[in-house]
Write a structure and sequence with these properties.
By secondary structure, this protein is of the alpha+beta class. 27% of the residues lie in helices and 32% in strands. Helix 2 runs antiparallel to helix 8 and helix 8 packs across helix 9.
Length: 392
């Protein structure tokens, strides 16, 4: 048995297959063959070469983004707990002042003023802070609760029935509700200037998104409008419009905060005029408003000062707001014979698929498949064939 297998393997080694052309006159097979060929040729020319610009060599984008927010708002202290009447400008509501390809604008606040370091009762809303005696708090001396505001001292405050902590006192009141309407709803009218410089290093082309304006005065007064042929290239955006273009409501979003994305797309065809290499802006919300758990975007920060006695005092802010992330994408393409030939070559290779499919139909589907199989395959035994040598 093993010897027969070995001889069969040797026999295959000493064989050669050459293509044989068989002209089959059949309407069914002919229609299938031409249809498949047309589909493949249509894909090569229409999709791979024309639609996907398979005749171009593409270069990836290199980009730098800077942002500058402007706007002033007056906060009425009677409408905001623990906050006096105050004027807020960009130095107050943009925290931190600079980020890479992003900026954050405060839209709502919970304020805890006049905090000093000392010993005070933990907030009742903190899990594990409730106590009835010092014995309840004693095992946790020097430690903090998972969501606590300070380090436990081991004593129980009988007034609040919560453990005393060493912290910034008084601690933030966890029962305070998020203000509604949002404290800084006026921020919807603030503007942001997004300056984007790009380069396609392979083609040594540099562009920027300040287009359609000739003077500084024109730049200061223009506002982005996607439906205006000139203003759609203005790099100054109204924050309320950015949210609206994404299909969201600014008032609802600014209550608990969120994350927005501003996409700048540079899709440049360098076979045309360089003036046609312009950005396209799109907007979308990245966080989901469909979930009630941990909704929005917020963080805490503080402003420090010293009282007349020289003690360090701070005002703690729980800031809710909208984080805007600027994303730059794009590519530049120009005619190049190499990718064109590669796409044509790979397309011609695909034409073999039509032959394979037609062979399957002819040899295994049509009624006359046995006749076609007999005509397609022909075994020829040479005078030096392995089988002949074996018989000798």
């Amino acid at each position: 048995m093993a010897q027969n297998v070995f001889r069969s393997a040797i026999s295959i080694f000493f064989e050669y297959d050459t293509p044989k052309i068989v002209h089959i006159k059949s309407k069914k097979v002919g229609v299938i063959n031409r249809f498949l060929q047309l589909v493949i040729i249509g894909y090569i020319i229409g999709f791979a070469i024309i639609f996907k610009k398979g005749y171009q060599k593409f270069d990836t984008i290199q980009s730098a983004v800077t942002t500058k927010v402007k706007g002033v708002a007056f906060l009425n202290g009677s409408e905001v707990p623990n906050l006096e009447d105050s004027l807020w400008d960009v130095a107050d509501y943009v925290v931190p002042p600079q980020e890479n390809n992003a900026f954050f604008v405060i839209t709502n606040l919970i304020v805890t003023p006049n905090q000093t370091q000392g010993i005070c009762p933990e907030d009742k809303g903190v899990q594990g802070a409730s106590c009835t005696s010092d014995a309840t708090c004693a095992p946790m001396i020097g430690k903090s609760l998972p969501s606590g505001n300070g380090v436990l001292t081991g004593t129980c405050n009988t007034t609040t029935n919560t453990c005393d902590i060493r912290a910034w006192c008084p601690v933030e009141n966890g029962d305070l509700k998020v203000p509604n309407p949002p404290v800084l709803l006026q921020s919807k009218d603030f503007t942001v200037f997004i300056k984007n410089n790009i380069e396609f290093p392979y083609y040594k082309i540099k562009r920027r998104n300040i287009l359609g304006v000739q003077t500084d005065d024109e730049l200061k007064t223009c506002r982005f409008d996607p439906f205006d042929p000139v203003k759609k290239f203005c790099p100054i955006f109204i924050l309320g419009d950015v949210v609206r273009f994404a299909g969201e409501d600014y008032k609802n979003m600014s209550g608990s905060g969120g994350v927005m994305q501003i996409i700048i797309d540079w899709d440049c065809n360098l076979d045309k005029s360089l003036e046609d290499c312009v950005p396209e802006y799109t907007f979308r919300r990245l966080d989901s408003a469909d979930f009630s758990l941990s909704q929005g975007f917020n963080f805490r920060y503080a402003k420090f000062y010293r009282d007349p006695d020289g003690r360090e005092v701070r005002t703690l802010y729980k800031a809710f707001g909208i984080k805007y992330i600027v994303t730059v994408i794009g590519q530049a393409g120009k005619f190049n014979v190499v990718p064109l030939l590669l796409n044509i070559g790979s397309g011609l290779g695909l034409l073999a698929v039509a032959t394979i499919l037609c062979d399957l139909v002819v040899l295994y589907v049509l009624k006359a498949k046995d006749v076609y199989r007999e005509k397609k395959y022909l075994n020829v035994v040479g005078d030096d064939a392995y089988k002949a040598m074996e018989n000798e």
